[in-house]
Specification:
Blueprint (H helix, E strand, L loop, with lengths): L12 H21 L1 H8 L4 H30 L1 H21 L8 H32 L6 H31 L2 E2 L2 E2 L1 H21 L13 H18 L20 H17 L3 H7 L5 H6 L5 E2 L3 E2 L7 H24 L6 H26 L11 E8 L5 E4 L20 E4 L4 E10 L2 E10 L3 E9 L2 E8 L11 E6 L5 E5 L2 E5 L4 E2 L3 E2 L3 E3 L3 E3 L11 E3 L4 E9 L2 E10 L10 H24 L6 H25 L4 H24 L8 H5 L8 H23 L5
Parallel strand pairs: 5-10, 12-20
Antiparallel strand pairs: 1-2, 3-4, 5-7, 6-8, 8-9, 10-11, 12-15, 12-16, 13-14, 13-18, 17-19, 20-21
C-alpha cells in the first residue's frame, strides 16, 4: 500500500521526486548560465563558435529525450532509466568541472574534457526529461486526480525555482570568487555537479516508497513501423492495386484501422509543428547572443549592486512565474469579454509575434551598444593613436598620409584612433617628428587591421618613439582592461585590486590586463610604496580599455588616464523589454502549443507528440547553429534577420492554422472498437476515463514547459 503524507491523499514518494527535480534543474540551468562566457573567456573561442557550440549542446539535450523514452518504455522502466542516466549526468558534470581547472593539462585537454562532459550531460538531462514528471504522476491512485494536478503545479514551481536560483547564484560563483588566478569556472560548474549528486541521492532515498509500473512498450516504435510499412506498400504497389483515400491506408493489411486513424490525427498536428522551430531559434538565444550583448552594457545599479551579464537569464524564469497567472486570470478573460475568439492556434501565432518584437527590441539595444565599440581597420589599413610625452608640442608627418595636420600637444586627451592607409598587408614607414625645431626620423613596421599606439618621448639624444600593439576588443566578461605607461627610470610592480602589473622602466608599456570594475582611489606598488601612496586611478568602468600614464609630481606618482576604448554606456536595464516580450511570447506559444497538441491527438499518442514537441526545440537550436557559423552578419543585422524570419514563419503558420479543423480525439472511441473487442457500453466507460486522463495529461504538460 502506498504511504501517504499525514492527513492527505498525497504519496510520500512525491517529496523525493520534487526535491530531485529542483536539484536537477538547478544543476542544468546553473551550468548552462555560465557556459557561453566559459567558452569565450576560458577556452578563448570567438563569439560565433561559442554560440554554435552552445546551441549544438542545447539541440542535443532535446534530441536525447527520444532515447530516454525508448529505454524507459521498452526496456528498463522509468525508475531504472532515471537512476542510470542520472549517473551518466553526474559523471558529465564532474568531467566538465575538471575541464575548468587550469592545471589539468593544456587547452586541448580542457576542450576535450569540456566536450565529453557536455555530451554526457546532454544524454543525462535529455534521457531523464520524459521520465521524471510521468514517474511522479504514476505515484497517485487513479481516483486522486485533483491531487495529481496539484502535484504537477508543485513540480512546475520546483523547476522554475531551481532555474531562478541557479541563474542567480552560479554567475556569482564564477565572477565573485577568484580561483587559479581568474574567474572560478571550476566552482561555477562544481556546485551544479554537487546539486546533481544530491538529486540522485534524494531520488534513490525514496526507492522504498515508489510505485513502479513495468515497461508497457513504446508507442513511438509502433507508429514508426506502421508509417514505414504504409510507405513501403505504397511504393511497391502496382497500377492494378485498388486506390486508397490516404497513403496510410496501405498499412491496413497489417495494422488495425483504429491505429491508422490515430496516426492520421497525429500527423495533422505534427504538420503544424513544421514552422515552430523558428520560435525556439529566437527563444534559446537568451543564453548565448543576449548574454554576449549584456557583456557590452553597463551592469551597475547604483554603487552598491552590480549584476553579472549571465544573471540576466533569470528574468525569463522569474517572469514566467508572474505571467502565467496574469495571462490565465487576467488577459485571456479580458480578451474573451471583448468577444474576441482567441483560439489556441491564434495564441501560438501571437506568441511568435511577441518573440519577433523581442528581437526587434534587442536590435535597437544592439545598435546603441556598438557605438562604444572600436571598429577594426579595413584591409590595407591599420589604426593608430599617439601619446606625446615630450613635454611640448610635436609635429608628425607620415608618408602618404595627412593624419596629423596640427601639432600634437603634450599628453593630449583623448588620443583617439585614426585610420592609417598602408596600401598593402604590411609596411615599413619612416615617420618624421619635429620637436623644438629639431626633426628626427622614426622607423616603424605596421601590419594591416591591427591597432597601435605610437609613443613619443625625449632622450638626451633627441626625440624617440616606440610602437605598441593595442587590444581594442571589448572584454568578453564586461570588465575593464588597463595597462600602464611608465615615464620613470625605475621598474616596479603595481597592484590594482587583486591584479599585479609588472611595470617596466623607461617609457615602456605594461601588459594589458583585466581588472574588476570599480573605483580605485588607492593602489599599491612595490618597491616604490611611498611614491604610490597618493596614486588615484578613479573609476575603471565596464567594457573600457585604459592606458594610464605614470608621471612624477613632487616625488609622487601621478596618473594620467587615457581612454583607448570607451566604457559601456547603455544600461543593462534596457534588456528588460526584450526579456519581457520573449517571456510573454513563451507563455502564449509554449504552454498553449502543448495544450493544443495534447487535445488534438489520441491519448496513447501523447508520448509521440511530446517527442515531436521536444524535437522542435532541438531543430530551433540547429537553426541558430547554422546562422551563427554561416551568415557572418553584424550582430544587430543578425537579430533583425531572426525577427524577420519569425514574422515570415508566423504568416505561413497562420495560413496553415486557417485551414486546420479542430477535432475531438474522443470521437475515435465512438468510431472504432478497440482491439480487445470491448462492448459498446465498456467503451462509453472508457470515454470517461480517457477524458479524465486527458485532463491530467494536459495539466502535466502545461506545468512542465521548462523541461
Amino acid at each position: 500500500m502506498t504511504k501517504k503524507l499525514c492527513g492527505t491523499n498525497y504519496p510520500t514518494s512525491i517529496c523525493f521526486i520534487v526535491v530531485n527535480e529542483f536539484c536537477e534543474r538547478f544543476s542544468y540551468y546553473g551550468m548552462k548560465a555560465v557556459l557561453t562566457l566559459y567558452f569565450l573567456s576560458y577556452l578563448k573561442w570567438d563569439k560565433d563558435l561559442s554560440t554554435a557550440i552552445y546551441h549544438a549542446f542545447s539541440s542535443l539535450c532535446y534530441f536525447t529525450p527520444i532515447l530516454g523514452a525508448l529505454i524507459a518504455d521498452s526496456w528498463l522502466g522509468k525508475y531504472k532509466t532515471i537512476i542510470y542516466l542520472s549517473i551518466v549526468y553526474v559523471i558529465g558534470h564532474i568531467v566538465k568541472s575538471v575541464g575548468a581547472i587550469p592545471s589539468v593539462g593544456d587547452s586541448t585537454v580542457h576542450i576535450a574534457l569540456s566536450m565529453v562532459g557536455l555530451i554526457l550531460i546532454a544524454f543525462g538531462t535529455g534521457g531523464i526529461k520524459p521520465c521524471v514528471a510521468a514517474f511522479g504522476g504514476d505515484q497517485f491512485d487513479e481516483e486522486h486526480t485533483t491531487e495529481r494536478q496539484k502535484f504537477f503545479s508543485i513540480f512546475y514551481m520546483s523547476i522554475n525555482a531551481g532555474s531562478v536560483l541557479s541563474t542567480l547564484i552560479t554567475p556569482l560563483l564564477r565572477g565573485d570568487v577568484q580561483c587559479f588566478g581568474g574567474d572560478c569556472y571550476a566552482l561555477a560548474f562544481g556546485v551544479p555537479a554537487a546539486l546533481m549528486v544530491v538529486a540522485l541521492v534524494v531520488f534513490i532515498g525514496g526507492s522504498g516508497l515508489y510505485k513502479r509500473n513495468p515497461p508497457q512498450g513504446n508507442i513511438m516504435l509502433q507508429v514508426c513501423k506502421c508509417i514505414g510499412f504504409a510507405i513501403k506498400k505504397r511504393w511497391k504497389s502496382s497500377k492494378n492495386d485498388p486506390k486508397r483515400k490516404h497513403w496510410l491506408d496501405w498499412a491496413e493489411e497489417k495494422y488495425p484501422k483504429r491505429l491508422i486513424q490515430e496516426i492520421k490525427m497525429l500527423l495533422r498536428v505534427l504538420v503544424l509543428y513544421i514552422p515552430l522551430p523558428m520560435f525556439w531559434a529566437l527563444f534559446d538565444q537568451q543564453g548565448s547572443r543576449w548574454t554576449l550583448q549584456a557583456t557590452r552594457m553597463n551592469m551597475a545599479f547604483g554603487e552598491a549592486f552590480v549584476i553579472k551579464p549571465d544573471q540576466m537569464q533569470m528574468l525569463n524564469a522569474l517572469l514566467i512565474l508572474i505571467f502565467v497567472p496574469i495571462f490565465d486570470l487576467g488577459i485571456y478573460p479580458l480578451i474573451g469579454l471583448c468577444r474576441i475568439n482567441l483560439t489556441p492556434l491564434r495564441k501560438i501565432a501571437a506568441g511568435m509575434v511577441f518573440a519577433a518584437f523581442a528581437f526587434i527590441a534587442a536590435t535597437i539595444v544592439e545598435v546603441n551598444v556598438v557605438k562604444t565599440v572600436v571598429d577594426p581597420a579595413p584591409a590595407g589599413h591599420c589604426l593608430l593613436q599617439t601619446f606625446n610625452l615630450a613635454k611640448g608640442d610635436i609635429n608628425v608627418i607620415i608618408p602618404d598620409n595627412d593624419l596629423y595636420p596640427e601639432p600634437i600637444p603634450y599628453l593630449q586627451d583623448p588620443p583617439q584612433y585614426k585610420t592609417l592607409a598602408l596600401g598593402t598587408s604590411s609596411k615599413n614607414l619612416t615617420i618624421q617628428v619635429t620637436f623644438n625645431g629639431t626633426a628626427s626620423d622614426c622607423k616603424q613596421y605596421f601590419k594591416q587591421q591591427k591597432a597601435y599606439s605610437l609613443i613619443f618621448y625625449t632622450e638626451p639624444t633627441g626625440i624617440q618613439c616606440k610602437l605598441v600593439e593595442d587590444f581594442i576588443k571589448k572584454n568578453e566578461d564586461g570588465n575593464p582592461r588597463v595597462r600602464f605607461l611608465n615615464t620613470q627610470p625605475e621598474a616596479f610592480n603595481l597592484t590594482v585590486g587583486d591584479v599585479t602589473f609588472p611595470v617596466p622602466s623607461g617609457h615602456s608599456m605594461s601588459e594589458n590586463k583585466t581588472v574588476e570594475r570599480g573605483d580605485y582611489s588607492s593602489v599599491s606598488c612595490s618597491p616604490l610604496a611611498e611614491k604610490c601612496s597618493t596614486l588615484d586611478l578613479g573609476l575603471l568602468d565596464f567594457g573600457a580599455s585604459y592606458t594610464i600614464i605614470l608621471t612624477e609630481v613632487l616625488d609622487k606618482f601621478d596618473a594620467k588616464k587615457m581612454v583607448d576604448v570607451n566604457a559601456n554606456n547603455v544600461h543593462i536595464a534596457w534588456q528588460i523589454p526584450q526579456y519581457t516580450l520573449i517571456t510573454a511570447g513563451e507563455v502564449m506559444f509554449s504552454i498553449t502549443g502543448l495544450e493544443f497538441s495534447y487535445s488534438q491527438a489520441p491519448t496513447n499518442m501523447k508520448s509521440v507528440l511530446q517527442a515531436g514537441w521536444l524535437l522542435t526545440v532541438a531543430f530551433g537550436n540547429v537553426i541558430v547553429l547554422i546562422v551563427a557559423e554561416g551568415a557572418g552578419l553584424e550582430q544587430w543585422k543578425e537579430f533583425l534577420l531572426f525577427a524577420g524570419l519569425l514574422l515570415g514563419v508566423c504568416i505561413i503558420f497562420s495560413i496553415m492554422a486557417y485551414f486546420y479543423t479542430y477535432v475531438d480525439p474522443d470521437q475515435l472511441q465512438k468510431m472504432h472498437l478497440d482491439d480487445s473487442g470491448k462492448e459498446e457500453g465498456d467503451d462509453a466507460n472508457d470515454d470517461d476515463e480517457k477524458k479524465n486522463h486527458n485532463g491530467i495529461q494536459l495539466e502535466k504538460t502545461r506545468k512542465s514547459t521548462r523541461f
